[in-house]
């Protein structure tokens, strides 16, 4: 089911949406093949290379010949995501890490959340049905405290601020206000706000404060398949806190608005959609590839209230939603009847 009629109807309203997977990668020649092999059927895969020193690009093209490889224009994960969003052509854009810390077989659950009425699906490793299997007790405590702070300041209900596993309707990506691949006037070698490691928390906050219908989807976080994850707990906590304070101050200085579609995100051309008789994508619990042997985890059982989904933002129910009651979303703070 397409998003609510309170926004302009996307081009996919009368057909099955196409899905693009964006994977930022930096020196991930050992992990990236396992991620690519375990992807469910999707329409497009975009690998954003962060100027890797190893054979990340060559390995990606060897494993998946149809992959679209782009090189990010600056440094930082935020810039990598912006470059991937600019290159994506699908109706739905899903972001997945290249280090194997997330199971790509969960992608259909994120797409299902969007088809059920959400405008953004945010992964959470700390809610019912999810787990962060690579988190220390101090990390869990830090996530809980910072999530509570954000929820108090922005009146949200997030349980995970820094999960990179997300899905969006592509036509709504400009609402996030991320710096584009090219920023006029930015000195060479400098980063724009949102380019660096603050991007994950920034995107999470803006998904709600910019008025999007956000739903949390339970996901499993795993250790890196190869290599060790740097554990700089105090710098990471301070970075999240700085992002929260900065976004809170910006919110009061300049109320969020809905920008028009910039040239970096042109509307996707209508494409031939598969017939209704086409076979659906495999179940998230189905095992495939070397990655699945270690990382494929069955999703939580689908009860009537869908505990793996949670509406994050809004003050009251949208009574015009005609879908199933367990998927009923709530309008965000910038709710406007179109």
- Kindly state the number of beta strands: 10
CATH topology (level 3) name: Spore Coat Polysaccharide Biosynthesis Protein SpsA, Chain A
The average pLDDT value, as a whole number, equals 75
Outline the low-pLDDT stretches: 1-6, 259-268, 270-338
Which percent range describes the beta-strand content?
5-15%
Largest sheet: 8 strands, mixed
- The CATH architecture comes to Alpha-Beta Complex
Class from secondary-structure proportions: alpha/beta
- What is the count of structural domains? 1
Q: Secondary-structure element order, as H and E?
A: EHEHEHEHEEHEHEEHHE
CATH class bucket? Alpha Beta
Alpha carbon gap, first and last residue: 18 Å
Treating each run of at least 4 consecutive H or I residues as one helix, how many helices? Answer: 8
The geometry reads as globular
What percent of the residues sit in helical stretches (DSSP H or I)?
25-40%
CATH superfamily: Spore Coat Polysaccharide Biosynthesis Protein SpsA, Chain A
Physical arrangement of strands within the biggest beta sheet: 3-2-1-4-7-5-8-10
Global Rg = 19 Å
Region (Disordered): 255-338
GO molecular function: transferase activity
Keywords: Transferase
Biased composition (Pro residues): 257-269
